[in-house]
């Protein structure tokens, strides 16, 4: 008696589950709006808003809003690039550790630069950059490749074809190279923040192994210029 | 909505009314939160919330050990040592100035929640006493003596006790750096035999005992015991005033994580260093004061919410330290927070562009809860 009723119950329940189960992404009804976190947008008086912004405000009164992800923060100190980098450094979901490593790295960069600043003579003080965020952003920008290579198979052989990269792909490659470099080529006893701060400072000055890797990629792309017409997009 | 510059002016107006003209130096208009008075003896309520400078040579001489690690890093980065004058420290200094040295030593226990500035208050008091010429017996962290000890030797003096040669020798080295001239003046009153061929005669300066402890590391803990005993016996004479400064005094009466060779746990009184220090912290001597700090951070088998003397010392410790003067240390007041924030801005420690705005300051105050340690940790990456 138990077996047929259990089977019938399962069949009836399965009917109203969605066809694809969302795993690691979420599936909202299209009517849901994105959450607005910045304080400045709520402090603007009504007159300053443009037409679209007024429409958005009215929509917000009626439409439901998606849940804000935990990485979205209204803090004035939050930076999306730093959050992305922290997520890439994270291993097995240990965000606490990744974030503390990131903050220790920024502090290490600041300390090194401040020591250099205080020891430098007056005329050189302006050239020394002490803001760790500026250094981080500039270093990442310096590490981004302009052109990438992809494998295209033609006539049985695979060729490395030079191909333009999107902004997201460039950022991803820069961050990935930095993290792999710091994880693999360091002494067993060196801490990650120390090595990362070293690499970031080198990349800021356009030196170091990551910049070299970028240049190697550029040279390969230049060498394979002949195959560029294999690309069809 | 006050601008950052305006805030300084209003604070200046409020501060200047109580400050006498010679406090603010005319040549260099340093901000209101600094004070040029670097002698702790002259600190009064006027200086509350301000930062005073300790010259770096003095830091090396007075604090070979004892400053918190993050503060040492800060000294290295900013190239100066600035300590904030806060109310608990002023209270303690007033008590010390008015204390009668003929009476038995009064015990002061500095307690408070985590990261509120207990160790820095202790360091302020130690600086004052060393400026006044007291003999300072500063134990930087008593918790280091009851955990993570690689070598435990059986004591030759008393079969039941255990020696810790490494910790004792490190402490003796630092003690020597801070109190050189006293070690030449104080003489031993008894003959001490260290082994078959080594002994220290009566009437030799205490420096020799310290050298003996440093040279023969096996007898370092006994050397520490001898030093403590001699100093305690001679303090009532009045030739010197003694300050016993112990950070993390709750370690002396707690449990240890050390084990003997047969894996049985070691209780604190079986350690020579702890045994001698307990005798030092008793108030059966006169001619000085005992200033101690409770600390949950390095403590063993204590919950993280415990900060009161009753919880951290336990019954045994409380009975041993009873009667004491409790000195609570709280988080930063709004004025002290302004002062700390202004100092970080001036030293270019807060580099983030938003940190200079009112929003950033409000966020820092909220996130740290005006707790000194949290503010320091938050301001690190910014």
Automatic annotation (TrEMBL), chain A:
GO terms for cellular component: mitochondrial inner membrane; mitochondrial small ribosomal subunit. One of its GO terms (biological process) is translation. Keywords: Mitochondrion, Ribonucleoprotein, Ribosomal protein, Transit peptide. It is found in: Mitochondrion. Its main location: mitochondrion. Pfam families: Ribosomal_S7. Residues 68-225 form the Small ribosomal subunit protein uS7 domain. It comes from the Eukaryota. Belongs to the universal ribosomal protein uS7 family. This is Small ribosomal subunit protein uS7m. It comes from Falcunculus frontatus (Eastern shriketit). The gene is Mrps7.
TrEMBL record, chain B:
One of its GO terms (molecular function) is structural constituent of ribosome. Residues 13-46 are annotated as: Disordered. It is found in: Mitochondrion. One of its GO terms (cellular component) is mitochondrial small ribosomal subunit. This is Small ribosomal subunit protein mS29. Residues 25-46 have a biased composition (Basic and acidic residues). GO terms for biological process: apoptotic process. PANTHER family: MITOCHONDRIAL 28S RIBOSOMAL PROTEIN S29, SMALL RIBOSOMAL SUBUNIT PROTEIN MS29. It comes from Falcunculus frontatus (Eastern shriketit). InterPro entries: P-loop_NTPase, Ribosomal_mS29, Ribosomal_mS29_met. Keywords: Mitochondrion, Ribonucleoprotein, Ribosomal protein, Transit peptide. Belongs to the mitochondrion-specific ribosomal protein mS29 family. It comes from the Eukaryota. The keyword Mitochondrion applies. It holds the Pfam family DAP3.
């Amino acid at each position: 008696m138990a077996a047929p009723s259990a089977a019938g119950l399962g069949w009836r329940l399965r009917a109203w589950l969605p066809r694809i189960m969302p795993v690691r992404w979420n599936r909202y009804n299209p009517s849901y709006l994105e959450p607005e976190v910045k304080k400045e947008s709520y402090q603007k008086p009504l007159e300053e808003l443009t037409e679209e912004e007024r429409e958005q405000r009215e929509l917000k009164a009626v439409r439901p809003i998606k849940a804000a992800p935990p990485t979205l923060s209204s803090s004035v100190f939050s930076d999306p690039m730093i959050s992305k980098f922290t997520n890439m450094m994270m291993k097995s979901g240990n965000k606490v550790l990744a974030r503390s490593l990131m903050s220790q790295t920024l502090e290490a960069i600041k300390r090194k630069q401040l020591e250099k600043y205080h020891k430098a003579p007056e005329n050189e003080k302006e050239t020394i950059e002490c803001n760790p965020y500026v250094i981080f952003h500039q270093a990442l920008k310096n590490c981004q490749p302009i052109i990438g290579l992809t494998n295209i198979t033609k006539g049985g052989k695979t060729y490395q074809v030079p191909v333009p990269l999107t902004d997201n792909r460039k950022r991803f490659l820069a961050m990935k190279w930095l993290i792999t470099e710091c994880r693999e080529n360091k002494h067993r006893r060196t801490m990650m923040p120390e090595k990362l701060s070293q690499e970031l400072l080198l990349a800021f000055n356009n030196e170091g192994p990551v910049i070299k890797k970028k240049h190697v990629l550029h040279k390969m792309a230049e060498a394979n210029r002949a195959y560029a017409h294999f690309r069809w997009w | 909505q006050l601008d950052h510059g305006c805030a300084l002016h209003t604070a200046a107006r409020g501060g200047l009314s109580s400050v006498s003209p010679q406090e603010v130096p005319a040549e260099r208009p340093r901000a209101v939160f600094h004070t040029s008075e670097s002698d702790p003896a002259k600190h009064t309520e006027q200086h509350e919330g301000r930062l005073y400078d300790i010259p770096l040579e003095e830091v090396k001489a007075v604090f070979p050990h004892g400053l918190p690690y993050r503060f040492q890093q800060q000294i290295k980065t900013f190239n100066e040592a600035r300590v904030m004058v806060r109310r608990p420290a002023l209270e303690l200094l007033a008590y010390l100035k008015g204390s009668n040295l003929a009476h038995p030593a009064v015990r002061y226990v500095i307690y408070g929640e985590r990261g509120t500035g207990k160790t820095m208050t202790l360091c302020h008091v130690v600086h004052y006493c060393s400026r006044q010429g007291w003999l300072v017996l500063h134990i930087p962290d008593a918790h280091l003596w009851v955990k993570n000890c690689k070598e435990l030797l059986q004591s030759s003096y008393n079969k039941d006790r255990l020696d810790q040669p490494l910790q004792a020798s490190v402490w003796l080295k630092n003690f020597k750096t801070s109190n050189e001239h006293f070690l030449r003046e104080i003489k031993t009153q008894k003959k001490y035999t260290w082994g078959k061929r080594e002994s220290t005669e009566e009437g030799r300066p205490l420096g020799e005992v310290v050298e003996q402890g440093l040279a023969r590391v096996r007898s370092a803990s006994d050397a520490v015991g001898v030093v403590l005993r001699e100093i305690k016996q001679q303090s009532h004479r009045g030739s010197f005033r003694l300050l016993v400064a112990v950070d993390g005094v709750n370690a002396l009466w707690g449990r240890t994580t050390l084990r003997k060779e047969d894996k049985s746990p070691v209780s604190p009184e079986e350690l020579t260093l702890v045994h001698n220090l307990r005798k030092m912290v008793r108030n059966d001597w006169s001619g000085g004061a005992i200033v101690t700090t409770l600390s949950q951070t390095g403590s063993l088998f204590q919950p993280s919410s415990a900060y009161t003397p009753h919880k951290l010392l336990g019954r045994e410790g409380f009975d041993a330290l009873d009667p004491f003067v409790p000195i609570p240390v709280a988080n930063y007041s709004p004025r002290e927070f302004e002062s700390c924030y202004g100092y970080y801005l001036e030293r270019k420690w807060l580099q983030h562009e938003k940190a200079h705005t009112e929003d950033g300051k409000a966020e820092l105050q909220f996130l740290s809860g005006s707790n000194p340690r949290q503010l320091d940790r938050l301001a690190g990456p910014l």
